Amino acid sequence: MAVTVTPLILLALILGLGIAGYGGYDYVQQSDAVDDAVAVETTVVGTDISRSDGRRFYYRISVEHTYEYQGREYTSKQVFPGSTRPIYTVRSDAQRSIEPYEPNETATAYVTPDNPSGAFLKRQTVFAPFRFIGFGSLLALLTALHAIGARNPGQNVGISQTTGREPTRYDTVFGFNRDTLSRVSKRLMLFTPAVFFVSLVTIVVLLLNSEESSIQVSVADPVGFAFLAALLSGLGFVFGLTLYGIWSFTEYRRLRERIPDPRPPSPFRHPSRLVTIMYSRDELNAYGRRVKLTGFVFTLIVFLIGVVGFVLVTAS
Description:
Residues 42-124 form the DUF3592 domain. This is DUF3592 domain-containing protein. This protein is of the alpha+beta class. Helices cover 52% and strands 15% of the residues. The chain is built from 7 helices and 7 strands, in the order αβββαββαββαααα. The strands form 2 sheets. It has a 5-stranded antiparallel beta sheet. Strands 6-7 form a two-stranded antiparallel ribbon. The longest helix has 36 residues, at 222-257. The relative contact order is 0.12.
């Protein structure tokens, strides 16, 4: 098995392992801090919720507090142990985390003997380091698969045009005509983003025009209905994308039937070949282009599911 190593591949591999290693190290530090911490009394100076800049914003929290440990006075802003602070996608969740800490009130802080200046208020680990572990591991894995993959999969693959090689499978998918399935999936992917965008604009306009600082949302209200429309359109897009991915995979199988023997290994059974095709910028034939598109569709589906899971975890 040949392995291709270029400066870019080596850099990506080191970067991925470094990011994953940082996340793992920080989680170990969190766990050790939770186990070894000593409880002390601390005085809350103030609390803060900061919002990130940019279109995709999130919130971080800090609580400034002062305490004494072994005769010396320290000031810390940490709420949780470790150097990776959690993020909140909803401001009310961030507010709830610092709600118990009022300025000039006393609370319990936890100090580790090897880092007395970094006392924290909540004796628990957080999910944040796993973002680095997951991203770094994925980057390293994809880079490694690309390095060991064949250099020209999806290229120079002849497709027979003879009647003996015409595809015989997947004329229907789940009982539906394959052309109908393709048409429905494409329309869903075009229509649902428009509904999602209009719903978000409607929500923003309604909230800006509301006289109350906070409102109770129900499905019968305009805001609640817009939220429901945004949710359903998002789910509809994922559903349409999934239908298209299934259709695209069957199209790949039909193209594969037309390849003369001996056929190359299936990219979907050999991840290194699939990753190399998805990375490729070279000229691909119809078979290679279909493999690349199908791989990207399923990658996007997994990414969207991961985003939903991340939002649910951070919001809980």
